[in-house]
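Hi V.,

Quick status before I head out on leave. The structure for the redesign project is tokenized and pasted below; the design run finished overnight.
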């Protein structure tokens, strides 16, 4: 598990290094179709993605643990959709980022936007092009939870995807999450 986290952090750092040298930093994620479940189409951003297999459409009001995860978002977003794995140890929250003009400022200083209450012990960041879309990724970690936060710019909004996974489940869920991120597409 530690090797995977270190590897992911190295990927994030490498993306950040390449960004400084290259104005267009295309990044591809490994997509394993067998690890993907339902499709989700966001009608406002006109983006689609596949949810990790076994993660089901859920209700925000169903679980106190989930409410705690949602409270970790602590920023200007409108939560729209929630998917939970069967053990309620991993989730995907789909929302919109409400401050598109402040996106570069948040990328420059993610602590001020995402860690005002010091819930996270580390925040790594990268910026890249994902299937043609400008994407800002933040990897937030504490002793219990890892959050893959993606802010994806579309023509009319910024789609925010928060993949949360309990550290104990990380090694079982990370390939599903990677496949889901790789499935993100802007529809024409």
């Amino acid at each position: 598990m530690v090797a995977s986290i270190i590897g992911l952090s190295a990927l994030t750092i490498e993306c950040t290094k390449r960004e400084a040298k290259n104005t267009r930093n295309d990044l591809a994620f490994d997509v394993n179709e067998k690890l993907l479940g339902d499709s989700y189409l966001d009608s406002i951003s006109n983006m689609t993605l596949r949810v990790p297999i076994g993660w089901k459409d859920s209700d925000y009001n169903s679980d106190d643990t989930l409410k705690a995860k949602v409270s970790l978002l602590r920023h200007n977003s409108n939560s729209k959709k929630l998917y939970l794995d069967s053990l309620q140890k991993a989730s995907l929250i789909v929302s919109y980022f409400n401050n598109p003009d402040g996106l570069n400022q948040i990328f420059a200083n993610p602590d001020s936007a995402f860690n005002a209450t010091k819930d996270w012990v580390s925040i790594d960041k990268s910026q890249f092009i994902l299937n043609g879309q400008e994407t800002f990724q933040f990897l937030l970690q504490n002793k219990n939870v890892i959050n893959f936060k993606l802010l994806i710019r579309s023509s009319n909004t910024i789609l925010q995807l928060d993949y949360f996974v309990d550290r104990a489940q990380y090694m079982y869920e990370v390939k599903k999450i990677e496949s889901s991120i790789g499935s993100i597409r802007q529809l024409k």
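Above is the designed sequence. Residues 2-21 form the longest helix (20 residues).

G. will cover questions while I'm gone.

Best,
W.
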